[in-house]
Amino acid sequence: MIFSSAIRSTATACVLACVAGSTIVGLLHEPKTAPLAWTSLAVGAAALVLVLATKRSPKRDAGLFAVSGMGSGVFIAALTVGLPGSLPTWLWTIGAICLGTMSLVVDAEASQGNSVSRL
After folding, report:
1. Contact predicate 21/88, CB 8 Å
2. Is the peptide bond between 58 and the residue preceding it cis, with omega within 30 degrees of 0?
């Protein structure tokens, strides 16, 4: 399977490392809207921790990765740091979107073999 638990866990841990990098950069450069930025960072990190802590479910994982990616988008918007300082946040965004897409592909492949009555 292209999205095994080991691959998912490793990739999610890498994205969480980018969240940690974003936190460090955010602490060094105060965001313009601190409550919104830190709330979005907390929600994104919590979504990733939930993915790691629970059993694999591609549909739920895709939703949680989307939440994490949107959280990083809000964090980027509230951050006053340009490149290369915002690089961990961009990697977080790209990683979360890629993982969500992989979850949807795995779910589609798994359900392709199941016959469904559309009556």
Report:
1. yes
2. no
Q: What is the pLDDT of residues 23-36, one digit of tens each?
A: 888 788 776 667 88
The angle, 0 to 180 degrees and rounded to 10, between the axes of the packed helices 5-28 and 87-112 is: 160
Spatial contact of 85 and 25, defined as CB atoms under 8 Å apart: yes
Which pLDDT tens digit goes with each residue over 72-114?
888 888 877 777 777 888 888 888 888 888 878 877 777 776 6
Backbone angles phi, psi at 86, to 5 degrees: -90, 5
Q: Are the beta carbons of 9 and 90 closer than 8 angstroms?
A: no
Looking at residue 68, its pLDDT comes to 86
Q: Which residues contact 95 (CB under 8 A, 6 or more apart)?
A: 11, 14, 15, 18
Looking at residues 59-70, what average pLDDT do you find?
85
